[in-house]
């Protein structure tokens, strides 16, 4: 080929039984802005990790400037000219722009002192490469999100990047800042820097990118010039023809409204959210990552108060003062970040499984009996197919799927009426996913209600009676199973 | 379900005996230490010396138990030593002024609990890291103690009080009964109450705990309050033991208490620790000092030995966890 800066041929990557990439061919040309699209779990992050040397592919070849590699050596990443700007930027907020840009490569005098003059010079060069002007002595934490993004890009450029990988660069930016970032990216591309652009926002892809590659289920769907692609074609390629895995859905009798939300807002996360959850239904909330779903759920649960709006619980107005109060009222919540908010690390399974029960069941007397606790935990996790060796084992040793099952199971035993699930299947295997589906349907069948939030449409379509679509902090549309779920329509509502 | 049978089998095969063994490592180390010292100096296991060892250990062990409550929540309480000092001076003054024992103890305890709650408020509500919050409190309290006593020793504490520390019951020093009583209550609280579970929960992950309904504020206040309370008990017992109130009493206890808890298996990362471990940790530390005195080893060397022991114990503990 010769004309591509980087070329991947027949890349296969397997993880314990599952195949994350099934023989993907992929190339980025010099000076091109190339979009990489796909749903969560389609293989995007695996591909990026192979490009940055974090993973070695099981099969295939990678050509960087016509030099062949079986895997990218991490140590040579900078020499090869590959740089990544992650979604969370990985900057040190407490120190200056200069020190962030030159972190690890600060020029030295006499072998130990910082050569401030040279450092300033290098930092300024990097900043001007990004096409902006900034005072290198400004503390990064004082900058607004967009400027931090630019610092991260300048840092990447300071290593003479020829390929810049941007992971969701606009996730935290306001509209006019996005335009500013685009100008910078266009100018970089003109200078011959290749940009690999990862985003969920399709409009942006049409605005900024030259070509687009879509991944689905670990395979490449196609690579096309953006001029040959319509939005509908793109959505179809990303979502594919989705078919349910079987017969997990069954209709439960619909009962009274359990939770009603009216005009709930918290800036800048979500605005004017209104909906009802009735006993007997699983309501899907679909929206892109960072679209305000998690904040809204925490608003209802009482952990992050809404600015305005009203919540009714069983017909009565409820002020959501705290998670404790919500749990007492029968609301359960499975947070998105399992590790830091979902379970108790370094604690045994039986304590994790009983955690909310200490408030609901044991608090009256104040006493707990380990034997009874274990019996209770055993009953809870048994209904959930959790694989473990001992109830006293720390939860950390379990697989993500088994951990999540315990996090969900702990709510089942606490007489909840409303269960809020935030990305409950992130990073877990198909079997565990189906167990969580089953429990959601079972709760509905028992007359309870489940709000199932996810940025992965197929699973919502499989489990939900209704789907609310959230886009940019607002609920844009509602779909009913009776009318049939059409993935393209739902996707369109999400990208509105 | 099929999974259950399989899981129980595995538990018996792997988890069981190793866990039991590691449970007994610490007492084994202590007994081994005693035997080694005994070989060099038979007087060590004399009844007299053992009583002495018990007396030496009880007060610091009570402070270490106090510390354990806070360490489990992933906090630290550097003010325990100063609380001991303050309670010691307050009780000495009250006793000298002629107040009976019971009200004296109650007032000391009240002061200790109040100190703890203020610590809890600074840590939880002002969101100042425990290390800094209690470092500040440590300095404040030592200043207050010196002010209260005008920097002077308070003597003439009634004889009946110092009897508490000297007397024995069934041949065992009364101070040890105090320790035993407090340790049992503390162990029950930690193992069998919701409050105990909550201590571990916030030490493991405050966010997870909060989102599962744990009252983080009440639990944090509770941990520091217990710490202040038990430190005040230790302060009173110290006054009894020394038969006087010494304004600098308890200096450095916070570090001994932390070391005892850590040797006993507590982790400064929270969610780990036990009362029995802490008590044994205190005995191991005191044994080193006591044996050193008997064997005529210079006190300065003993300090070096205690520090080394602390590092070695924690190193092996980490090693064990990494292997696991």
From TrEMBL, chain A:
One of its Pfam families is ABC_tran
Domain annotation ABC transporter: ranges: 6-242, 254-494
Q: Which residues cross the membrane?
A: none
Q: Which CDD domains match?
A: ABC_Carb_Monos_I, ABC_Carb_Monos_II
Annotated GO molecular function terms are: ATP binding; ATP hydrolysis activity
Repeat as a keyword of this entry, yes or no, is yes
Q: How does it sit in the membrane?
A: Peripheral membrane protein
GO CC entries: plasma membrane
Kindly report the protein's main subcellular placement as a broad class.
membrane
InterPro entries under this entry? AAA+_ATPase (IPR003593), ABC_carbohydrate_import_ATPase (IPR050107), ABC_transporter-like_ATP-bd (IPR003439), ABC_transporter-like_CS (IPR017871), P-loop_NTPase (IPR027417)
Subcellular location field: Cell membrane
UniProt keywords (A-Z) are: ATP-binding, Cell membrane, Membrane, Nucleotide-binding, Repeat, Translocase, Transport
- Give the protein's recorded name: Sugar ABC transporter ATP-binding protein
Q: Say which species the protein is native to.
A: Cohnella terricola
Automatic annotation (TrEMBL), chain B:
Keyword list, A-Z: Cell membrane, Membrane, Transmembrane, Transmembrane helix
Annotated TM spans:
21-41, 53-73, 94-122, 168-190, 221-243, 255-280, 300-319
Asked if the Swiss-Prot or TrEMBL record annotates the protein with the keyword Transmembrane helix, the reply is yes
Signal sequence coordinates: none
Please give the Pfam families that the UniProt record associates with this protein.
Answer: BPD_transp_2 (PF02653)
Q: Which GO terms describe its cellular component?
A: plasma membrane
Membrane topology classification: Multi-pass membrane protein
InterPro entries (UniProt xref) = ABC_transp_permease
Query: What are the protein's GO molecular function terms?
Result: transmembrane transporter activity
Could you tell me where this protein is found in the cell? Cell membrane
Q: What is the name listed in the Swiss-Prot or TrEMBL entry for this protein?
A: ABC transporter permease
Q: What does the organism's lineage look like at the top?
A: Bacteria, Bacillati, Bacillota, Bacilli, Bacillales
């Amino acid at each position: 080929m010769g004309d591509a800066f980087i070329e991947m041929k027949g890349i296969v990557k397997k993880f314990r039984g599952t195949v994350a990439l099934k023989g993907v061919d992929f190339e980025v040309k010099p000076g091109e802005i190339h979009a990489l699209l796909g749903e969560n779990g389609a293989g995007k992050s695996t591909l990026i990790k192979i490009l940055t040397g974090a993973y070695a592919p099981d099969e295939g070849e990678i050509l960087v400037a016509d030099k062949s590699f079986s895997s990218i050596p991490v140590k040579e990443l900078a020499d090869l000219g590959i740089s990544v700007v992650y979604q969370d930027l990985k900057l040190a907020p407490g120190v200056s722009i200069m020190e962030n840009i030159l972190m690890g490569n600060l020029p030295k005098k006499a072998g130990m002192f910082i050569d401030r003059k040279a450092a300033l010079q290098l930092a300024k060069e990097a900043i001007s490469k990004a096409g902006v002007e900034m005072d290198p002595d400004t503390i990064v934490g004082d900058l607004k999100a967009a400027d931090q993004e630019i610092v991260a890009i300048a840092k990447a450029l300071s290593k003479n990047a020829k390929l810049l990988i941007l992971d969701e660069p606009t996730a935290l930016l306001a509209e006019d800042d996005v335009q500013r970032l685009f100008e910078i990216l266009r100018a970089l591309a003109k200078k011959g820097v290749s940009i690999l652009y990862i985003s969920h926002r399709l409009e942006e892809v049409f605005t900024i990118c030259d070509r687009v590659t879509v991944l689905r289920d670990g395979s490449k769907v196609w690579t096309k010039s953006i001029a040959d692609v319509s939005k509908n074609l793109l959505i179809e390629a990303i979502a594919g023809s989705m078919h349910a895995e079987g017969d997990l859905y069954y209709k439960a009798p619909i009962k009274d409204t359990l939770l009603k939300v009216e005009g709930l807002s918290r800036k800048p996360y979500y605005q004017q959210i209104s909906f009802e959850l009735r006993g007997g239904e699983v309501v899907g909330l679909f929206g892109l990552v960072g679209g305000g779903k998690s904040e809204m759920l925490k608003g209802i649960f009482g952990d992050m108060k809404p600015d305005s709006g009203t919540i009714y619980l069983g017909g009565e107005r409820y002020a959501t003062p705290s998670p404790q109060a919500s749990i007492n009222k029968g609301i359960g919540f499975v947070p998105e970040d399992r590790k830091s908010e979902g379970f108790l690390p370094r604690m045994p399974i039986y304590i994790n499984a009983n955690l909310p029960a200490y408030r609901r069941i044991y608090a009256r007397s104040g006493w707990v009996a380990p034997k009874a606790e274990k019996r209770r935990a055993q009953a809870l996790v048994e209904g959930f197919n959790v694989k473990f060796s001992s109830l006293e084992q720390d939860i950390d040793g379990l697989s993500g799927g088994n951990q999540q099952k315990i996090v969900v199971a702990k709510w089942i035993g606490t007489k909840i009426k409303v269960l809020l699930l935030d990305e409950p299947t992130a990073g877990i295997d198909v079997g565990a996913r189906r167990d969580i589906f089953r429990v959601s349907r079972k709760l509905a069948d028992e007359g309870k209600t489940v709000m199932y939030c996810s940025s992965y449409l197929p699973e919502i379509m499989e489990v939900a009676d209704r789907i609310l679509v959230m886009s940019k902090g607002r609920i844009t549309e509602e779909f009913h199973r009776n009318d049939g779920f059409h993935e393209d329509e739902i996707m369109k509502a999400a990208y509105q | 379900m099929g999974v259950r049978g399989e899981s129980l089998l595995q538990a018996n095969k792997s988890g069981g005996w190793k866990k039991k063994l590691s449970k007994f490592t610490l007492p084994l180390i202590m007994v081994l230490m005693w035997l080694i010292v005994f070989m060099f100096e038979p007087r060590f296991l004399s009844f007299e010396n053992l009583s002495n060892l018990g007396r030496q250990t009880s007060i610091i062990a009570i402070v270490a138990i106090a510390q354990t409550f806070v360490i489990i929540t992933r906090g630290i309480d550097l003010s325990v030593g100063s609380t001991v000092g303050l309670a010691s001076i307050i009780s000495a003054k009250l006793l000298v002024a002629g107040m009976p024992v019971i009200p004296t103890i109650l007032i000391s305890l009240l002061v200790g609990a109040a100190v703890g709650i203020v610590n809890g408020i600074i840590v939880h509500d002002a969101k100042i890291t425990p290390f800094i919050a209690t470092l500040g409190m440590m300095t404040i309290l030592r200043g207050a103690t010196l002010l209260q006593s005008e920097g002077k020793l308070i003597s003439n504490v009634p004889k009946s009080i110092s009897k508490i520390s000297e007397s024995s019951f069934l041949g065992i020093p009364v101070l040890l009964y105090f320790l035993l009583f407090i340790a049992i209550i503390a162990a029950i609280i930690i193992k069998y109450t919701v409050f105990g579970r909550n201590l571990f929960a916030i030490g493991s992950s405050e966010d997870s705990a909060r989102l599962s309904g744990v009252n983080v504020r009440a639990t944090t206040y509770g941990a520091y309050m217990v710490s202040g309370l038990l430190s005040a008990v230790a302060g009173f017992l110290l006054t009894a033991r020394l038969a006087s109130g010494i304004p600098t009493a308890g200096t450095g206890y916070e570090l001994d208490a932390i070391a005892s808890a850590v040797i006993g298996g507590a982790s400064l990362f929270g969610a780990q620790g036990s009362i029995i471990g802490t008590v044994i940790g205190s005995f191991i530390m005191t044994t080193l000092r006591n044996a050193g005195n008997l064997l005529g080893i210079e006190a300065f060397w003993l300090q070096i030995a205690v520090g080394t022991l602390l590092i070695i114990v924690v190193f092996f503990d980490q090693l064990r966890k990494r292997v696991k």
